[in-house]
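From the pipeline queue, job 12 of 40. The input is one protein chain; the requested action is below.

Action: predict structure.
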Amino acid sequence: MTRSWLAPFALGLALMTALPAAAQTEVKDPPPTWSHRAAKVDFPQRLGAFERGRVFEYNEDGSDASVGYDLTRDGKLAAILTIYVYPANELGCDGTFTDAQAAITRTYKEAKLGAERRLPSPNGATPDAARQVRYTFPLALRSEQPAPVKSDLYLYCAPGDRWLVKYRATYLADLDLDTEIAAALRAIQWPAPLR
């Protein structure tokens, strides 16, 4: 077993350190369209060029969950996109964003913070509704040797709603995936409270 085979698995575990809940259960053999029952949002097998991987639930009722998607280029892993949908918490939107940033810098000691920007809501309908920040750091994403990657943290807090939508996208630094990631988010049929 080589480290290059373990790299995507290790990355997936590391990305999950920024989760809002402590326990996790992998959803075994999820159907082609896996549903987050509480938030009423469906996650298909494919989102554009991204293929669904692992699904996790972090509490007993499944209201706190994540769905991972992988992007491959030339038969190799090029990006991991993990979308989290979970109930709002006592930290509020700003506190949740700060907490997620702290989890990244704890996990990746060499992480360098880029500029924060405002992005649209998940379906793209409401401009400047979400916060996003980009980090860069070395990571063995495609091979045994660490290479520079970009890692984006996005958080959408619907006004007056009880749900948060967060994603982490980690990909090779020489790629520009902003358009593909936005298209993947828009490919999901978000219910009204999460748009």
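Job complete. DSSP finds three helices and eleven strands in the chain.
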